[in-house]
């Protein structure tokens, strides 16, 4: 009997070690951009290791891979959410809102999303903010949207920081809610937090504000710095704006060659303004 117990314990230990190794291999593949390979690794260990399951969901949520059996995911994620895992609760909420693997049910989706935000899960806070902002599955409420975006952004969530920047910058119809002394400065600060984390969208937005002098004293040199950082990551609008700076000699030495180089990069991504500029410069 003791031998059977020992063998059973060894078997469990080996399965756990095997799952851990597969998770590590999946992490390496995901970091290298091999998302299909990571999916295979995570699928092989998701029933023994909850982290594998959650990482697989992250790939789906970030649109790195396409989901296969939705019902299968629901059966795996629901018990994990019931156990109180905040990330699982977030994904389960999304599944109900989107009708993914389960009948669409906004009230049930909101219930699970709220369970997740009660544990200060930043991704769920951002998603709830987006839902209230756009009126997706809930009544549109900008005050609630800002509340949840701020909670998420204060934890360093990049999308929430950008969303707050957008709200404070545009302000349309929100004057009674946005009561900061300087909403443009507030927008600048949130974009800066995002930009300093390396986010291309935040860097681009910060560049625009520096160039136009919104929320901060106009500084075309700083604008070039942020456009460059964003353009290097492939942001087409940043590439276009950087090309314009080179074409006009704003914040940098005037350079037709550099302007053409960056207009071309933007045009290659379908930026039609860049296509028009190239035609004029190449005449």
Attribute tags:
single chain; 283 residues; mainly alpha; Serine Threonine Protein Phosphatase 5, Tetratricopeptide repeat
Describe the overall structure.
By secondary structure, the chain is mainly α. Helices cover 72% and strands 0% of the residues. It has helices spanning 2-31, 35-45, 50-61, 70-82, 86-98, 106-117, 122-134, 142-153, 158-170, 183-196, 200-212, 220-232, 236-248, 256-268, 272-281. Helix 4 (70-82) crosses helix 5, helix 6 (106-117) packs across helix 7 (122-134) and helix 8 (142-153) packs across helix 9 (158-170). The longest helix is centred in the N-terminal third of the chain and has 30 residues, at 2-31.
